[in-house]
Design brief:
It is built from 12 helices and 6 strands. The chain is mainly alpha-helical. The strands form 2 sheets. A 3-stranded mixed β-sheet has the order 1-3-2, with no helix packed on it. Strands 4-6-5 form a 3-stranded mixed β-sheet, with no helix packed on it. α2 crosses α5 and α8 packs across α11. The longest helix is centred in the last third of the chain and has 20 residues. The radius of gyration is 25 Å and the shape is globular. The chain starts with 13 loop residues before the first strand and ends in a 6-residue tail after the last helix. The relative contact order is 0.08. The N terminus is likely disordered.
Length: 400
Protein backbone atom coordinates (compact mmCIF):
# COMPACT_ATOMS: atom_id res chain seq x y z
CA UNK A 1 0.00 0.00 0.00
CA UNK A 2 2.88 2.33 0.69
CA UNK A 3 4.14 1.70 -2.84
CA UNK A 4 1.78 4.36 -4.19
CA UNK A 5 2.91 7.06 -1.74
CA UNK A 6 4.60 9.94 -3.49
CA UNK A 7 2.95 9.61 -6.89
CA UNK A 8 1.56 12.93 -8.04
CA UNK A 9 4.15 14.68 -5.91
CA UNK A 10 7.38 16.31 -7.05
CA UNK A 11 10.34 17.59 -5.02
CA UNK A 12 9.59 21.14 -6.12
CA UNK A 13 6.14 21.07 -4.56
CA UNK A 14 6.97 19.42 -1.22
CA UNK A 15 8.97 21.07 1.53
CA UNK A 16 10.55 19.58 4.66
CA UNK A 17 11.50 21.06 7.97
CA UNK A 18 14.60 19.02 8.83
CA UNK A 19 18.14 18.69 7.45
CA UNK A 20 19.20 15.94 5.02
CA UNK A 21 22.61 15.06 3.65
CA UNK A 22 22.20 12.36 1.02
CA UNK A 23 19.46 11.09 -1.26
CA UNK A 24 18.04 7.58 -1.54
CA UNK A 25 19.44 7.33 -5.07
CA UNK A 26 22.94 8.09 -3.81
CA UNK A 27 22.78 5.15 -1.43
CA UNK A 28 22.02 2.85 -4.36
CA UNK A 29 20.45 0.31 -2.03
CA UNK A 30 17.95 -2.05 -3.65
CA UNK A 31 15.58 -4.37 -1.88
CA UNK A 32 14.94 -7.83 -3.33
CA UNK A 33 11.41 -8.75 -4.34
CA UNK A 34 11.33 -11.29 -1.51
CA UNK A 35 11.58 -8.43 0.98
CA UNK A 36 7.91 -7.70 0.37
CA UNK A 37 6.79 -11.21 1.28
CA UNK A 38 6.22 -10.03 4.81
CA UNK A 39 3.78 -8.31 7.10
CA UNK A 40 3.96 -4.78 8.43
CA UNK A 41 3.66 -3.30 11.88
CA UNK A 42 2.63 0.33 11.67
CA UNK A 43 1.85 3.03 14.17
CA UNK A 44 0.06 6.28 13.54
CA UNK A 45 0.54 9.69 15.13
CA UNK A 46 -3.11 10.47 15.72
CA UNK A 47 -4.19 14.10 16.06
CA UNK A 48 -0.71 15.58 15.39
CA UNK A 49 0.06 19.03 16.72
CA UNK A 50 2.16 19.91 13.66
CA UNK A 51 0.16 21.42 10.80
CA UNK A 52 0.94 21.82 7.12
CA UNK A 53 0.08 24.35 4.48
CA UNK A 54 -1.42 24.05 0.99
CA UNK A 55 -1.42 26.90 -1.52
CA UNK A 56 -2.50 27.04 -5.15
CA UNK A 57 -0.15 28.24 -7.86
CA UNK A 58 -3.02 29.36 -10.09
CA UNK A 59 -6.66 28.60 -10.92
CA UNK A 60 -5.82 25.62 -13.14
CA UNK A 61 -7.22 22.55 -11.36
CA UNK A 62 -4.75 20.29 -13.20
CA UNK A 63 -1.70 22.01 -11.69
CA UNK A 64 -0.25 20.45 -8.54
CA UNK A 65 -0.47 22.82 -5.54
CA UNK A 66 2.39 23.72 -3.23
CA UNK A 67 2.31 21.49 -0.15
CA UNK A 68 4.31 22.00 3.04
CA UNK A 69 3.58 19.09 5.37
CA UNK A 70 5.75 20.54 8.17
CA UNK A 71 6.22 17.12 9.73
CA UNK A 72 7.44 17.29 13.34
CA UNK A 73 7.42 21.08 13.44
CA UNK A 74 5.95 20.50 16.90
CA UNK A 75 8.50 18.51 18.98
CA UNK A 76 5.75 16.67 20.83
CA UNK A 77 4.88 14.82 17.63
CA UNK A 78 8.48 13.66 17.32
CA UNK A 79 8.40 12.30 20.86
CA UNK A 80 5.15 10.50 20.11
CA UNK A 81 6.84 8.86 17.12
CA UNK A 82 9.81 7.75 19.24
CA UNK A 83 7.39 6.23 21.76
CA UNK A 84 5.77 4.36 18.89
CA UNK A 85 9.08 2.77 17.94
CA UNK A 86 9.63 1.71 21.57
CA UNK A 87 6.29 -0.08 21.49
CA UNK A 88 7.20 -1.79 18.20
CA UNK A 89 10.52 -2.92 19.68
CA UNK A 90 8.67 -4.61 22.54
CA UNK A 91 6.30 -6.28 20.09
CA UNK A 92 9.16 -7.62 17.97
CA UNK A 93 10.57 -9.33 21.06
CA UNK A 94 7.34 -11.10 22.03
CA UNK A 95 7.25 -14.88 21.73
CA UNK A 96 4.57 -14.71 19.04
CA UNK A 97 6.74 -12.75 16.64
CA UNK A 98 9.95 -14.51 17.60
CA UNK A 99 8.36 -17.72 16.29
CA UNK A 100 8.02 -16.09 12.84
CA UNK A 101 11.66 -15.03 12.45
CA UNK A 102 15.18 -15.82 13.61
CA UNK A 103 16.02 -12.88 15.86
CA UNK A 104 19.49 -11.71 16.83
CA UNK A 105 20.85 -8.87 18.93
CA UNK A 106 20.64 -6.46 16.01
CA UNK A 107 17.27 -7.61 14.64
CA UNK A 108 15.45 -4.43 15.61
CA UNK A 109 18.22 -2.25 14.12
CA UNK A 110 17.96 -4.22 10.86
CA UNK A 111 14.20 -3.75 10.87
CA UNK A 112 14.65 -0.01 11.38
CA UNK A 113 16.99 0.22 8.40
CA UNK A 114 14.63 -1.87 6.29
CA UNK A 115 11.74 0.38 7.31
CA UNK A 116 13.54 3.52 6.21
CA UNK A 117 14.60 1.99 2.88
CA UNK A 118 11.21 0.40 2.19
CA UNK A 119 9.14 3.51 2.88
CA UNK A 120 8.34 5.33 -0.37
CA UNK A 121 8.52 9.08 0.06
CA UNK A 122 10.56 11.97 -1.29
CA UNK A 123 12.60 12.52 1.86
CA UNK A 124 16.38 12.13 1.31
CA UNK A 125 18.15 9.60 3.53
CA UNK A 126 21.27 9.86 5.67
CA UNK A 127 23.73 7.00 6.14
CA UNK A 128 23.45 7.09 9.95
CA UNK A 129 19.68 6.70 9.97
CA UNK A 130 19.63 4.02 12.69
CA UNK A 131 21.76 6.01 15.14
CA UNK A 132 18.66 7.45 16.77
CA UNK A 133 14.94 6.85 16.67
CA UNK A 134 14.45 10.54 15.98
CA UNK A 135 16.29 10.13 12.66
CA UNK A 136 14.19 7.06 11.83
CA UNK A 137 11.05 9.06 12.53
CA UNK A 138 12.12 11.87 10.24
CA UNK A 139 13.18 9.67 7.32
CA UNK A 140 10.66 6.81 7.47
CA UNK A 141 7.54 8.91 7.88
CA UNK A 142 4.71 8.97 5.41
CA UNK A 143 1.24 10.51 5.43
CA UNK A 144 -0.69 7.30 5.86
CA UNK A 145 -2.72 7.28 2.65
CA UNK A 146 -5.68 9.35 3.76
CA UNK A 147 -4.87 12.98 3.02
CA UNK A 148 -7.16 15.59 4.54
CA UNK A 149 -7.42 19.25 5.45
CA UNK A 150 -7.18 20.79 1.97
CA UNK A 151 -10.77 22.08 1.83
CA UNK A 152 -11.64 23.16 5.34
CA UNK A 153 -14.92 24.71 6.38
CA UNK A 154 -14.73 28.48 6.48
CA UNK A 155 -11.70 28.57 4.19
CA UNK A 156 -12.82 26.65 1.10
CA UNK A 157 -16.37 25.44 1.86
CA UNK A 158 -19.28 26.46 4.04
CA UNK A 159 -21.22 24.28 6.48
CA UNK A 160 -23.24 22.83 3.57
CA UNK A 161 -20.03 21.80 1.79
CA UNK A 162 -20.59 24.43 -0.90
CA UNK A 163 -17.38 25.91 -2.30
CA UNK A 164 -17.12 29.58 -1.31
CA UNK A 165 -17.46 31.92 -4.26
CA UNK A 166 -18.62 29.19 -6.66
CA UNK A 167 -22.06 28.20 -7.91
CA UNK A 168 -23.28 24.60 -8.06
CA UNK A 169 -20.10 23.08 -6.59
CA UNK A 170 -19.62 21.17 -3.37
CA UNK A 171 -16.70 19.21 -1.94
CA UNK A 172 -17.69 16.12 0.05
CA UNK A 173 -14.59 14.05 0.74
CA UNK A 174 -11.69 13.62 3.15
CA UNK A 175 -10.18 16.99 2.26
CA UNK A 176 -12.90 18.56 4.44
CA UNK A 177 -11.66 16.76 7.58
CA UNK A 178 -9.72 18.71 10.19
CA UNK A 179 -8.39 15.39 11.50
CA UNK A 180 -8.45 11.98 9.86
CA UNK A 181 -10.49 9.30 11.67
CA UNK A 182 -8.46 6.79 13.65
CA UNK A 183 -9.33 4.00 11.23
CA UNK A 184 -9.86 3.72 7.48
CA UNK A 185 -12.16 6.68 6.68
CA UNK A 186 -14.04 4.97 3.84
CA UNK A 187 -17.20 4.26 5.83
CA UNK A 188 -17.15 7.78 7.27
CA UNK A 189 -16.81 9.30 3.81
CA UNK A 190 -19.52 7.12 2.30
CA UNK A 191 -21.91 8.00 5.12
CA UNK A 192 -21.08 11.68 4.60
CA UNK A 193 -21.75 11.52 0.89
CA UNK A 194 -24.71 9.09 0.98
CA UNK A 195 -27.22 9.85 -1.71
CA UNK A 196 -25.04 12.33 -3.65
CA UNK A 197 -24.33 11.38 -7.24
CA UNK A 198 -27.38 9.12 -7.66
CA UNK A 199 -30.28 9.83 -9.97
CA UNK A 200 -33.60 7.97 -10.25
CA UNK A 201 -33.16 7.62 -14.03
CA UNK A 202 -30.11 5.36 -13.68
CA UNK A 203 -31.34 2.90 -11.04
CA UNK A 204 -34.02 0.26 -11.62
CA UNK A 205 -35.82 -2.01 -9.15
CA UNK A 206 -37.41 -5.42 -9.41
CA UNK A 207 -40.18 -5.18 -6.81
CA UNK A 208 -43.42 -3.23 -6.44
CA UNK A 209 -43.65 0.03 -4.53
CA UNK A 210 -46.64 2.23 -3.74
CA UNK A 211 -45.29 5.53 -2.36
CA UNK A 212 -42.03 7.44 -2.53
CA UNK A 213 -39.88 8.67 0.35
CA UNK A 214 -40.56 12.25 -0.72
CA UNK A 215 -44.32 11.67 -0.52
CA UNK A 216 -44.00 10.56 3.09
CA UNK A 217 -42.29 13.87 3.94
CA UNK A 218 -40.57 12.23 6.90
CA UNK A 219 -37.37 13.90 8.05
CA UNK A 220 -34.86 12.60 10.55
CA UNK A 221 -33.38 15.02 13.11
CA UNK A 222 -29.63 15.50 13.20
CA UNK A 223 -29.54 13.79 16.61
CA UNK A 224 -30.70 10.55 15.02
CA UNK A 225 -27.19 10.01 13.70
CA UNK A 226 -25.58 10.21 17.13
CA UNK A 227 -25.81 6.45 17.40
CA UNK A 228 -24.13 3.21 16.44
CA UNK A 229 -25.20 0.86 13.69
CA UNK A 230 -25.63 -2.89 13.48
CA UNK A 231 -25.34 -4.08 9.90
CA UNK A 232 -25.43 -7.45 8.22
CA UNK A 233 -24.27 -8.34 4.76
CA UNK A 234 -25.68 -10.85 2.29
CA UNK A 235 -22.41 -12.43 1.25
CA UNK A 236 -22.18 -14.20 -2.11
CA UNK A 237 -25.73 -13.31 -3.26
CA UNK A 238 -27.37 -15.48 -5.91
CA UNK A 239 -29.15 -12.49 -7.48
CA UNK A 240 -27.13 -10.74 -10.17
CA UNK A 241 -27.47 -7.29 -11.70
CA UNK A 242 -26.84 -5.83 -15.11
CA UNK A 243 -24.79 -2.86 -16.29
CA UNK A 244 -25.08 -1.43 -19.81
CA UNK A 245 -23.48 1.61 -21.38
CA UNK A 246 -25.59 4.30 -23.04
CA UNK A 247 -22.75 5.33 -25.32
CA UNK A 248 -18.95 5.48 -25.53
CA UNK A 249 -18.67 8.64 -23.43
CA UNK A 250 -16.88 7.60 -20.23
CA UNK A 251 -18.41 10.56 -18.35
CA UNK A 252 -21.99 9.38 -18.91
CA UNK A 253 -23.54 7.31 -16.10
CA UNK A 254 -24.40 3.78 -17.29
CA UNK A 255 -27.74 2.04 -16.83
CA UNK A 256 -27.63 -0.15 -13.73
CA UNK A 257 -30.16 -2.81 -12.77
CA UNK A 258 -29.19 -4.22 -9.38
CA UNK A 259 -31.99 -6.83 -9.42
CA UNK A 260 -31.95 -7.11 -5.64
CA UNK A 261 -33.66 -10.26 -4.36
CA UNK A 262 -34.46 -11.58 -7.83
CA UNK A 263 -33.41 -14.90 -6.32
CA UNK A 264 -35.74 -15.69 -3.36
CA UNK A 265 -32.93 -17.37 -1.43
CA UNK A 266 -31.26 -13.98 -0.97
CA UNK A 267 -34.47 -12.60 0.52
CA UNK A 268 -34.59 -15.45 3.01
CA UNK A 269 -30.96 -14.81 3.93
CA UNK A 270 -31.87 -11.19 4.63
CA UNK A 271 -34.80 -12.22 6.85
CA UNK A 272 -32.48 -14.54 8.79
CA UNK A 273 -30.14 -11.59 9.29
CA UNK A 274 -32.90 -9.55 10.90
CA UNK A 275 -33.69 -12.46 13.23
CA UNK A 276 -30.06 -12.41 14.38
CA UNK A 277 -30.19 -8.64 14.91
CA UNK A 278 -33.37 -9.03 16.97
CA UNK A 279 -31.55 -11.44 19.26
CA UNK A 280 -28.60 -9.07 19.57
CA UNK A 281 -30.85 -6.15 20.49
CA UNK A 282 -32.22 -8.19 23.37
CA UNK A 283 -28.83 -9.07 24.87
CA UNK A 284 -27.92 -7.56 28.22
CA UNK A 285 -25.03 -5.62 26.69
CA UNK A 286 -27.26 -3.65 24.33
CA UNK A 287 -30.14 -3.36 26.79
CA UNK A 288 -27.79 -1.36 29.03
CA UNK A 289 -27.40 1.21 26.23
CA UNK A 290 -31.11 1.90 25.70
CA UNK A 291 -34.49 1.74 27.40
CA UNK A 292 -36.21 -1.16 25.63
CA UNK A 293 -39.94 -1.80 25.47
CA UNK A 294 -42.10 -4.42 23.76
CA UNK A 295 -42.04 -2.54 20.46
CA UNK A 296 -38.36 -1.51 20.54
CA UNK A 297 -37.36 -3.80 17.67
CA UNK A 298 -40.30 -2.62 15.54
CA UNK A 299 -39.24 1.01 16.16
CA UNK A 300 -35.68 0.13 15.18
CA UNK A 301 -36.94 -1.47 11.97
CA UNK A 302 -38.88 1.66 11.04
CA UNK A 303 -35.90 3.85 11.88
CA UNK A 304 -33.67 1.62 9.78
CA UNK A 305 -35.89 1.96 6.74
CA UNK A 306 -36.18 5.74 7.12
CA UNK A 307 -32.49 6.24 7.87
CA UNK A 308 -31.22 4.21 4.93
CA UNK A 309 -30.30 6.49 2.04
CA UNK A 310 -31.30 4.93 -1.26
CA UNK A 311 -33.70 5.67 -4.09
CA UNK A 312 -36.17 2.91 -3.26
CA UNK A 313 -39.70 4.21 -2.59
CA UNK A 314 -41.22 3.32 0.79
CA UNK A 315 -44.59 1.85 1.75
CA UNK A 316 -46.48 2.83 4.91
CA UNK A 317 -46.70 -0.81 6.13
CA UNK A 318 -42.97 -1.43 5.97
CA UNK A 319 -42.74 -3.06 9.42
CA UNK A 320 -45.51 -5.58 8.76
CA UNK A 321 -42.99 -8.14 7.57
CA UNK A 322 -39.23 -8.56 7.55
CA UNK A 323 -39.40 -9.21 3.81
CA UNK A 324 -40.66 -5.64 3.28
CA UNK A 325 -37.92 -4.28 5.52
CA UNK A 326 -35.37 -6.19 3.48
CA UNK A 327 -36.66 -4.75 0.22
CA UNK A 328 -36.85 -1.14 1.37
CA UNK A 329 -33.86 -0.83 3.72
CA UNK A 330 -31.27 -2.49 1.49
CA UNK A 331 -28.21 -0.77 0.14
CA UNK A 332 -25.19 -2.00 -1.80
CA UNK A 333 -22.63 -1.69 0.95
CA UNK A 334 -20.19 0.79 -0.61
CA UNK A 335 -17.80 -1.56 -2.41
CA UNK A 336 -19.24 -1.94 -5.91
CA UNK A 337 -17.85 -4.69 -8.10
CA UNK A 338 -18.59 -6.83 -11.15
CA UNK A 339 -18.63 -4.14 -13.86
CA UNK A 340 -15.46 -5.28 -15.65
CA UNK A 341 -15.41 -9.06 -15.40
CA UNK A 342 -12.81 -11.32 -16.97
CA UNK A 343 -13.92 -12.65 -20.34
CA UNK A 344 -16.50 -9.88 -20.78
CA UNK A 345 -14.48 -6.66 -20.41
CA UNK A 346 -10.93 -7.77 -19.58
CA UNK A 347 -8.69 -10.80 -20.12
CA UNK A 348 -6.67 -12.70 -17.49
CA UNK A 349 -3.96 -10.01 -17.64
CA UNK A 350 -6.54 -7.30 -16.89
CA UNK A 351 -6.22 -5.90 -20.43
CA UNK A 352 -9.43 -4.38 -21.80
CA UNK A 353 -10.70 -6.48 -24.70
CA UNK A 354 -10.48 -4.65 -28.01
CA UNK A 355 -8.35 -1.81 -26.66
CA UNK A 356 -4.61 -1.15 -26.77
CA UNK A 357 -2.58 -0.03 -23.77
CA UNK A 358 -5.48 -0.14 -21.32
CA UNK A 359 -5.96 -2.29 -18.23
CA UNK A 360 -8.52 -2.22 -15.44
CA UNK A 361 -7.19 -3.24 -12.01
CA UNK A 362 -9.78 -2.38 -9.39
CA UNK A 363 -12.84 -3.71 -7.60
CA UNK A 364 -14.91 -3.78 -10.78
CA UNK A 365 -12.98 -6.94 -11.77
CA UNK A 366 -14.20 -8.88 -8.71
CA UNK A 367 -16.90 -11.51 -9.18
CA UNK A 368 -17.60 -11.29 -5.46
CA UNK A 369 -16.59 -8.57 -3.01
CA UNK A 370 -14.29 -9.67 -0.14
CA UNK A 371 -15.95 -10.10 3.23
CA UNK A 372 -14.16 -7.05 4.62
CA UNK A 373 -13.12 -3.65 3.27
CA UNK A 374 -11.35 -4.47 -0.03
CA UNK A 375 -8.83 -1.63 0.06
CA UNK A 376 -5.85 -3.77 1.09
CA UNK A 377 -6.80 -6.46 -1.43
CA UNK A 378 -6.99 -3.90 -4.23
CA UNK A 379 -3.70 -2.27 -3.33
CA UNK A 380 -2.01 -5.66 -3.16
CA UNK A 381 -3.50 -6.56 -6.56
CA UNK A 382 -2.34 -3.27 -8.05
CA UNK A 383 1.18 -3.71 -6.72
CA UNK A 384 1.36 -7.29 -7.95
CA UNK A 385 0.24 -6.38 -11.46
CA UNK A 386 2.55 -3.37 -11.55
CA UNK A 387 5.49 -5.58 -10.56
CA UNK A 388 4.48 -8.20 -13.12
CA UNK A 389 4.32 -5.58 -15.90
CA UNK A 390 7.73 -4.14 -14.98
CA UNK A 391 9.37 -7.57 -14.91
CA UNK A 392 7.94 -8.48 -18.30
CA UNK A 393 9.10 -5.22 -19.88
CA UNK A 394 12.46 -4.69 -18.17
CA UNK A 395 13.48 -8.10 -16.81
CA UNK A 396 16.22 -7.90 -14.19
CA UNK A 397 16.60 -4.18 -14.83
CA UNK A 398 13.20 -3.64 -13.21
CA UNK A 399 14.77 -4.20 -9.80
CA UNK A 400 11.60 -5.72 -8.38
Amino acid sequence: MRAISGFGQSPSTIHYTHDNSSSLEEQNEELPHEAYNAGSLLFKISDPLSTGELTLNNTNADDIPNISFNYFSNPQDLQTCVNGYHILEKLVKTKYLIELMQPSNDTFEKLLKFTVNETVNLIPRTADVTESLEKCCRQALVTIWHYHGGCLKGKVINSDYKVLGAQGLRVIDGSTFVQSPGTNPQATLMMLGSGFGQSPSTIHYTHDNSSSLEEQNEELPHEAYNAGSLLFKISDPLSTGELTLNNTNADDIPNISFNYFSNPQDLQTCVNGYHILEKLVKTKYLIELMQPSNDTFEKLLKFTVNETVNLIPRTADVTESLEKCCRQALVTIWNYHGGCLKGKVINSDYKVLGAQGLRVIDGSTFVQSPGTNPQATLMMLGRYMGTKILRKRLGQAAGV
